[in-house]
């Protein structure tokens, strides 16, 4: 027995092998679910209405206030766009202030930090485009929607970080070969502190909102900004060394900043690689398995697969249930399993639950598929 349904297409009850329940959800805790189960009703009429609602539910898409959830998703994207706009403006102002001091002082350490801050500000552009594209509805071609646009934006961010590292390293090596005095050291030190302050404020803002809306890309960008803040403090070391009569300290600090940028580049590239390869934290898989194991009626939990689509998770899971259950009863178990997963696994937006009959003994309900595996 099988039940398949999607939020945008009519349900086809002629799929009759297996017991699959797959619907889109974006649950907000505390909202009314509107199942129509008839709770609180007494007497034969209430039981009949509840039975009819349950039977009808087996052949219709399972929806939990989809309008409210769509509004919540749009609000998340809007908050992300607002964060990007504010952080872009803050880092651009920081970068311009530092660039003015670079032109006055000739400090390559400050130049490296300035380039990195400009690159960090520019990362807001591809992310903003990704958030905007990700708000589009799913289509017949892009059936999962456009959430993966964030991963493409991540590639652009990695390229920008790499470009800033290459330019900063080039200028530092060039200054080591041809040393020059650094002027306006007090201004250089002040500009370094401005860089630290601007990055730290942006980092806190990005990380806070990123966690609230479930955007790993935004959180990673916030951590990136925090690292940039500490590299800005390194500019103070270069200025201090130059003030003590060691002008070579400035290009050395410039090289150290280049190394720090490369470390950020490594972490960012690894994060994007994991997203492109559909990697997830194994702890999330274990949590999903534990949630399924607590659902009464589920005898065994089979495979559990999770993947990120933008800043939301999707799940595909296999469960085994009593083979004597009716289609309606097996569907109800799948609904309950999906419901618990969405509410208990962080950032899970939708789950497809495939229910296999457990029995009778010796039966292989997937024998016809063996040649295709």
UniProtKB/TrEMBL annotation:
<feature type="domain" description="Cation efflux protein transmembrane">
    <location>
        <begin position="85"/>
        <end position="277"/>
    </location>
</feature>
<feature type="region of interest" description="Disordered">
    <location>
        <begin position="1"/>
        <end position="46"/>
    </location>
</feature>
<dbReference type="Pfam" id="PF16916">
    <property type="entry name" value="ZT_dimer"/>
</dbReference>
<dbReference type="InterPro" id="IPR058533">
    <property type="entry name" value="Cation_efflux_TM"/>
</dbReference>
<protein>
    <submittedName>
        <fullName>Cation diffusion facilitator family transporter</fullName>
    </submittedName>
</protein>
<feature type="transmembrane region" description="Helical">
    <location>
        <begin position="83"/>
        <end position="103"/>
    </location>
</feature>
<dbReference type="InterPro" id="IPR027470">
    <property type="entry name" value="Cation_efflux_CTD"/>
</dbReference>
<feature type="transmembrane region" description="Helical">
    <location>
        <begin position="184"/>
        <end position="202"/>
    </location>
</feature>
<keyword id="KW-1133">Transmembrane helix</keyword>
<keyword id="KW-0812">Transmembrane</keyword>
<keyword id="KW-0472">Membrane</keyword>
<comment type="similarity">
    <text>Belongs to the cation diffusion facilitator (CDF) transporter (TC 2.A.4) family.</text>
</comment>
<keyword id="KW-0813">Transport</keyword>
<feature type="compositionally biased region" description="Basic and acidic residues">
    <location>
        <begin position="1"/>
        <end position="31"/>
    </location>
</feature>
<feature type="transmembrane region" description="Helical">
    <location>
        <begin position="153"/>
        <end position="172"/>
    </location>
</feature>
<feature type="transmembrane region" description="Helical">
    <location>
        <begin position="223"/>
        <end position="246"/>
    </location>
</feature>
<dbReference type="Pfam" id="PF01545">
    <property type="entry name" value="Cation_efflux"/>
</dbReference>
<dbReference type="InterPro" id="IPR027469">
    <property type="entry name" value="Cation_efflux_TMD_sf"/>
</dbReference>
<dbReference type="InterPro" id="IPR036837">
    <property type="entry name" value="Cation_efflux_CTD_sf"/>
</dbReference>
<feature type="transmembrane region" description="Helical">
    <location>
        <begin position="115"/>
        <end position="133"/>
    </location>
</feature>
<dbReference type="InterPro" id="IPR050291">
    <property type="entry name" value="CDF_Transporter"/>
</dbReference>
<dbReference type="InterPro" id="IPR002524">
    <property type="entry name" value="Cation_efflux"/>
</dbReference>
<feature type="domain" description="Cation efflux protein cytoplasmic">
    <location>
        <begin position="281"/>
        <end position="357"/>
    </location>
</feature>
């Amino acid at each position: 027995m099988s039940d398949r349904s999607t939020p945008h297409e009519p349900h086809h009850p002629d799929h009759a092998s297996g017991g699959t329940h797959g619907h889109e959800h974006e649950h907000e805790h505390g909202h009314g679910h509107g199942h129509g189960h008839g709770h609180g009703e007494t007497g034969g009429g209430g039981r009949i209405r509840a039975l009819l609602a349950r039977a009808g539910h087996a052949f219709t898409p399972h929806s939990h206030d989809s309008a409210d959830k769509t509004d919540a998703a749009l609000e998340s994207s809007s908050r992300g766009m607002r964060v990007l706009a504010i952080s872009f403006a803050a880092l651009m102002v920081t970068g311009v202030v530092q660039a003015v001091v670079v032109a006055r002082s000739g400090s390559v350490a400050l130049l490296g930090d300035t380039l990195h801050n400009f690159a960090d500000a520019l990362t807001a552009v591809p992310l903003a485009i990704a958030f905007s594209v990700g708000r589009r509805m799913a289509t017949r071609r892009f059936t999962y929607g456009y959430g993966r646009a964030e991963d493409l934006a991540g590639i652009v961010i990695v390229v920008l970080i790499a470009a800033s590292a290459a330019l900063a390293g080039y200028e530092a090596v060039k200054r080591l070969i041809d040393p020059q005095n650094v002027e306006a050291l007090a201004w250089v030190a002040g500009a370094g502190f401005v860089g630290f302050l601007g990055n730290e404020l942006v980092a806190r803002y990005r990380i806070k909102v990123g966690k609230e809306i479930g955007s790993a890309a935004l959180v990673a960008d916030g951590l990136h900004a925090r690292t940039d803040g500490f590299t800005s403090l390194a500019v103070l070391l270069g200025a201090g060394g130059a003030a003590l009569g060691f002008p070579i300290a400035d290009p050395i600090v410039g090289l150290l900043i280049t190394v720090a940028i490369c470390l950020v580049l490594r972490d960012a590239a690894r994060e994007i690689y994991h997203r492109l390869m559909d990697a997830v934290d194994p702890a999330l898989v274990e949590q999903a398995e534990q949630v399924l194991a607590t659902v009464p009626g589920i005898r065994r939990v089979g495979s559990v697969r999770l993947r990120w689509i933008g800043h939301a998770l999707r799940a595909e899971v296999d469960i085994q249930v009593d083979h004597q259950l009716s289609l309606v009863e097996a569907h109800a178990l799948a609904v309950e399993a999906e419901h618990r997963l969405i509410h208990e696994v962080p950032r899970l937006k939708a789950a497809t639950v495939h229910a296999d009959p457990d029995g009778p003994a010796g039966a292989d309900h997937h024998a016809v598929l063996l040649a295709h595996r």
